[in-house]
Amino acid sequence: MLYPIENRVREVKNLSGIWNFKIDKNNSGISERWYEAPLKDAVLMAVPSSYNDLVTDASEREHVGYVWYETSFIIPAGWEGRRIVIRFGSAAHHAVCWINGQEILRHKGGFLPFEAEITEIVEASEEKEFRLTVALSNVLDWTCLPSGEVVTKEGKGYPEGYHYQDTFFDFYNYSGIHRPVKLYTTPKRYIEDIVITTSLNQEMTRAEVVCRITGTDKIKKIQILDENGLAAAESTDTAETVTLTVENPKLWNPGKAYLYRLRVEGEEDSYTETFGIRSVKVTDKEFLINGKPFYFKGFGKHEDSEIHGRGMDLALNVKDFNLLKWMGANSFRTSHYPYSEELLMMADREGFVIIDEAPAVGMCFWQEKKVFDGTRVNEKTLEHHLDTLKDMYSRDKNHPCVVMWSVANEADTSEDGAVPYFKKVIDTMRSLDNTRPVTMVHTMWPSADKVSQWLDVICLNRYFGWYSDHGHTEVIKEQVTGEMKEWYEKYHRPMIMTEYGADTIPGLHKMPAVAFSEEFQCEFLKEYHKAFDELDFMVGEQVWAFADFQTKQGLNRIDGNKKGVFTRNRQPKMAAWLLRERWTREKG
Ligand code: BDP
């Protein structure tokens, strides 16, 4: 799926702004056909944003089910004769959309874009002014990613109809239209998709750029432009797949991005896609980018901030990249769902290395309950998981920053039922893309894990000294070393510690250090680093987490997860300096 762009033949209209909004308290709006007329008693709501932290009533914040959004738009006279598409960057989690009461699309999944062509509706109307209504549900069950359960309780002590949304992941189930909603035009014959794959010769002096262009337009010319706008290669081949050669290519390198543009010109349409030339290869001990060993230094993050929730926030993204660069970080994982396209575009330009993760999180109960025995994860979950991988690939395939796919976070891979499930998931990811390695992020023990033989890199989350032996930093080094070696001996794959961290209250100082103090966070991280530095198969360390973030309420979550190296408002804790010192001095 292509990102909406403007050029001579394409226009974009951003519908972001203040929309009408209504909580559907009884979830009766669809049966009562609220979409047929303007919403009654609506309040104002910002798009994009999560609505949860913008309302003042707890029952609205925690509402389970539908909320309604509404706006109106006009179609400019100049759009006559154009193909018109409406596109949502993302909306959590299930959307139904109507234009003037006519249903135009339904979509499941809260973290990836979806769109519908609306040319016919526009052409059939004299008015050229339209009411857009969106019903959006935040309900998560076992057919969704991430999965959840709506819990109902009845009897003494519970009001009638009592229920709440339970989730098995450690971030708040922010809901709303989280990314921009746009209208865009194309000519009637148009370019639907462009897939760019690059490969380099051994000496890296020549790149083959394979471009597969689909759509209804006939392609006249494709050109690769360098950063000065000069043509590095061009072709007038009209086949669907065309291979271009770039001599002496400038490579996209971590921290030193170089971006080419592929300009595709059809008889009617044209589109320019940004891409980079780089290679990614994994050996048994190394992660190679452009043939050089790369060591991941960075974080697991969240799209999360005060007021906005998970709503896209460009200022926040700029701040985060500046902080990441200040620290000497070179990478992050989009834990635990694909982040916005706008963020990936920045990572392309900043030379940041991204592990792109599917929203499959919370498929593990640490032996308390089974997940893959048919009672929870089911055929529909798998179907949705595979669809999500396809959509994630389709959206992110041309980003040079994305160097590896993560198909899930912390699933119970010790269960027999997880074996066929993840075989299918990993095979599907590979069949979509054979140019990037595939991983999944583990919480399992090496002796129990049954699926990692199909992965290229082993990624592990560990909390020695925190969730086990709480407060005892003296056990960390040996436990990390011991376990990492076990994984390596079992699978002979390079390893990344994708999460390690300790909740830390900013401003709490203790000497000697005790858990939750800033000193403890520093000592805790240092112990992990001692272990990493002795293991030659380690290819990265990503601290959990970049910044504090909101979670559901829980006894061990006082206003969220505090494992951030920055506060939720992006102010540094002491550990920021420790990491900066380490990452600006050491390794790749
Ligand atoms: C890991 C999860 C992450 C949590 C973290 C924690 O992957 O989402 O936030 O633990 O407990 O298990 O802080």
Tell me what you see in this structure.
The chain is an alpha+beta fold. It folds into three domains: 17-138 and 173-179, Galactose-binding domain-like (Jelly Rolls), CATH 2.60.120.260; 191-275, Immunoglobulin-like; 294-583, Glycosidases (TIM Barrel), CATH 3.20.20.80. The chain contains nine helices and 32 strands. Strands 25-26-27-28-29-30-31-32 form an eight-stranded parallel beta barrel, surrounded by four helices. Strands 3-2-4-10-7-8 form a six-stranded antiparallel sheet, with no helix packed on it. The chain has a four-stranded antiparallel sheet with strand order 1-14-5-9. Helix 3 links the parallel strand 25 (296-300) and strand 26 (331-333). Helix 3 (314-327) packs parallel to helix 4 (341-350), helix 5 (379-396) runs parallel beside helix 6 (418-432) and helix 7 packs parallel to helix 8 (518-532). The longest helix has 18 residues, at 379-396. The mean pLDDT is 97. Residues 170, 336, 409-410, 443, 461, 499, 544, 561, 563 line the site of beta-D-glucopyranuronic acid (BDP).
Concise summary:
The chain has 588 residues and is of the alpha+beta class. Helices cover 18% and strands 30% of the residues. The protein has 3 domains: 17-138 and 173-179, Jelly Rolls (Sandwich), CATH 2.60.120.260; 191-275, Immunoglobulin-like (Sandwich); 294-583, TIM Barrel.
